[in-house]
């Protein structure tokens, strides 16, 4: 007996330990990998973002509404005692000198009330699921934007470090020239002073990279907002070729918020049927026992409210108007979706033109001018001011190019969000 008891205790302890470990693992914050891809970031977002987790509870609550709608009315039970001569001098035994009535009844819903309200509750689940997908659509766009802000900040830091390294090489050359007496101490001091601007660019870029990473970790629901990781995507030009008319039609079919409005229309139509059924009173059959002093009798009957005046006309009219109201909302959202898709498409086209122009003309010209200026300055054929102007022009052009690549990529993600599907 003791062995069985010990074995049972060990089994219970092991089961509890497994449950505790499983619960701890389920509630553990996400582990951010050192190399974070956009696809992996999306998976972490869907699994751990607090907003998505909160919205998923709306589905659980909507399903609880379905469970509640399927329930039948509770039975009625009544016990009544009458005619006991309480104020007489000798009322006698209580259970012999009173009328006792015991009655039980079961309300019966007619007019299909239970089935109709169940269909309304089931439709509410569809609405809630569509709203969750719309929340995910918006958060995925926010994730893609924040992720590529990190990519942009990383590219900006690399550019700033590259420019600073090139300028340090210029300082090294001029230090030798100063030591050989080829330039004055004033000119060399001016060169060293100019380095501060390029150094400030590096510090600002480092801060921007840290802040964008923190913002991304916050969206992913990470507990450690200072976790060390690196993004794997790079700024690259990926032109998009898709007709505007085609994506507008796709948006009308794929947009989750529009689908939620359409589901709401169906829900309100089903609610009209529910309100009409509520105008039909329920029937309550009952059966009882009555003891009148020394006589025992049986009572039974049916209770039914006569629908002479109140047939729920007001709520039926309200629900009917609600159907029309939600229908107009569907039309409004359809127009808004078409407009949003068209504007997003036009933004993609504009950003593509900007990137192509920078690639074909401005970046090459700025790089060529910078290389010529560096070579001329080393040979002493160009003064310091002209060299610094060429260096700044190159830096600003490259920064503008990075910004254009970022804006173009984000505009594609905004177009995908406007359509409601990925290309």
Question: What features would you describe in this structure?
Answer:
This protein has 423 residues and is α+β, with helices and mostly antiparallel strands. Helix content is 70%, strand content 9%. It is built from nine helices and six strands. The protein has helices at residues 2-27, 38-48, 50-69, 113-179, 185-220, 244-254, 256-278, 313-378, 384-419, and strands at residues 35-36, 76-82, 99-105, 230-231, 283-292, 295-304. Strands 2-3-5-6 form a four-stranded antiparallel sheet, with no helix packed on it. A two-stranded parallel sheet has the order 1-4. Helix 2 packs across helix 4. The two termini are 68 Å apart. Mean pLDDT is 85; it is low at 6-12 and 14-26.
Order of helices and strands: HEHHEEHHEHHEEHH
The backbone outline, from C-alpha atoms, is: elongated
Low-confidence spans = 6-12, 14-26
Largest sheet: 4 strands, antiparallel
Quote the beta fraction. Answer: 5-15%
Compute the number of strand runs: 6
Give helix % range: 55-70%
From the structure above, extract its key features.
423 residues, two-stranded parallel sheet, alpha+beta, 6 strands, 4-stranded antiparallel β-sheet, single chain, elongated
Task: Give the topology.
Layout: H1 2-27, E1 35-36, H2 38-48, H3 50-69, E2 76-82, E3 99-105, H4 113-179, H5 185-220, E4 230-231, H6 244-254, H7 256-278, E5 283-292, E6 295-304, H8 313-378, H9 384-419
Parallel strand pairs: 1-4
Antiparallel strand pairs: 2-3, 3-5, 5-6
Helix pairs in contact: 2-4, 3-4, 4-5, 4-7, 4-9, 6-8, 7-8, 8-9
